[in-house]
Amino acid sequence: MEKLVEKGLTKAIGLSNFNKRQTDDILSIATVKPAALQVECHPYLAQNELISYCHAHGLVVTGYSPLGSPDRSWRKPEDPVLLEEPGVIAMAKKYNKSEAQILLRWQVQRRVVTIPKSVTPVRILQNLQVFDFCLSEEEMQLIGALNRNWRYIIPLITVNGKSVPRDAGHPLYPFNDPY
User: Fold this and answer.
1) Euclidean distance between CA atoms 175 and 75, whole angstroms
2) Which residues form the NADP-dependent oxidoreductase domain (predicted)?
3) Pairing verdict, β 162-165 and 156-159
C-alpha cells in the first residue's frame, strides 16, 4: 500500500481491525504512516483505550457498526440492542432526535468518524443531522457506561454445540489483546 502512495495512486492508507500491538508493529516499520484505523465501535464496544492510543499517535479512528448492526443476519434474540437502551431513548426524546442520531453524536464528540450503514434515504439524511446539538458530559458518560466489550461483528463457528470465534486460534487474531 505504501507503493500506491509513492506512485500517487492514493493519498492515504489505513488499517482495519488491528489492535494496539499490531498497530505499534506497523508504525515502527512504516515509511508511510497509516492515516486511520477502522474498528468496530459503538457504546457496547467503546474501544476507549484504542481510541486514546490512536489519537495520541495521530491516527483517525473510523468506527464501523456504530449502531450495533441491528439488521445483521446472525443476530440472536438475547443479543443486546443499542437502539433500545432506555437512556438513549430518553436522550432522543429530549433532543427530538432518533436513537441512531444520539449514538452517532456520541461518537462525533469522541472524535470518532462513523460509517453507519443504511439504504433508506431518510435515515441517510438523519445520519448527517448530528451537528446541530451536543450531548452533555453527563449524557456522554451515561452512554459510555454501556460499554461491555461486546462485539457484534465477529465470525463465529459452532464447536461442540457452542459458538466460538472462528479465527481466535490464529497467532495474529487481533481480539485476544485487551485493546
Assistant:
1) 20
2) 1-147
3) antiparallel
Does the domain at residues 2-176 carry the CATH identifier 3.40.50.300? no
| Maximum CA extent, the chain | 51
Q: Which of 17, 54, 56, 22 is nearest to 39 (CA)?
A: 17
Domains of the chain: which residue ranges? Answer: 2-176
Q: Sort strands 14-16 and 156-159 into parallel, antiparallel or unpaired.
A: unpaired
Segment holding 25, helix H or strand E: helix 20-29
C-alpha cell at 151: 462485539
What confidence tens digit (pLDDT) does each residue in 63-87 have? 999 999 888 878 888 899 999 999 9
Structure pTM?
A: 0.90
Residue 75 is classified by DSSP as -
Joined grid coordinates for residue 110: 469522541
Alpha-carbon gap, residue 70 to 96, rounded angstroms? 22
Burial (CB count within 10 angstroms: exposed 0-12, middle 13-18, buried 19+), residue 106: buried
